[in-house]
């Protein structure tokens, strides 16, 4: 719930649009009232990130950004999105590790891609890439250590898969190697998926600016109509797209990594009955 709300706010960061979403939640009636808590939460998140971005109805410069205006430094936004992805995926790795320990699957907890070896591979790989990207001479030794940690994690996963395979050699080795390499590429692709957090935060401002520019070319009545129509379009269309993208990250980069149909029966925190 917290990560979904935060990711929605990152992609839809706007003080004005966030307030409209929160106000709309207060007017829900009947069965629709069950959506009130989540709408209030994402509306508040959008307002919070709107203050960080300095965005009000997509217009930058109306208020001073507490952090950064998305269009002013897209690369910094992409870096922030990637670091969020690293933290999110590391959290899912820890959840997988906890599940393995709770199920007393000690070998998997230590040596599988969802265990300690997977954490070594992922965090070591991230550190190696970051230190290599910054190219700081003083960090050369740290980059070598990070690469060693990542390689160690990969080798542990490879050995574990070899021990689990029932195929004859050398087929056992090649199947295990493919599974281990898949873990490497999976972590890399999953991390890049979080770039959409920055992309949608930038596109939100760009779309609002386009609507503002179009309205400026019209007469007084046309300006009002275009601004109202444009902001309603942003709230409905882009709001729905952002919610879908946040859910996509939750399910494919989150739940699919650690949630299975085995184990204890799922019991929700709140019983609807």
In total, how many beta strands?
Answer: 2
State the helical fraction.
over 70%
The average pLDDT score comes to: 89
Tally the helices: 10
N-to-C SSE series? Answer: HHHEEHHHHHHH
- Shape call: globular
Distance between the termini: 21 Å
Structural class: mainly alpha
**Rg on CA atoms, Å:** 23 Å
Largest sheet: 2 strands, antiparallel
Strand order of the largest sheet: 1-2
Binned strand content:
under 5%
Spans where pLDDT lies below 50 across 5 or more residues: none
Structure, described:
With 273 residues, the protein is mostly helical. The chain contains ten helices and two strands; from the N terminus they run H-H-H-E-E-H-H-H-H-H-H-H. It is globular and about 75 Å long. The mean pLDDT is 89.
What attributes characterize this protein structure?
mainly alpha, 10 helices, 2 strands
Tell me the layout of helices and strands.
Blueprint: H1 2-11, H2 15-26, H3 36-53, E1 55-56, E2 59-60, H4 74-102, H5 106-111, H6 116-134, H7 140-164, H8 171-192, H9 195-216, H10 220-258
Antiparallel strand pairs: 1-2
Helix pairs in contact: 1-3, 1-9, 1-10, 2-3, 4-6, 4-8, 4-9, 4-10, 6-7, 7-8, 9-10
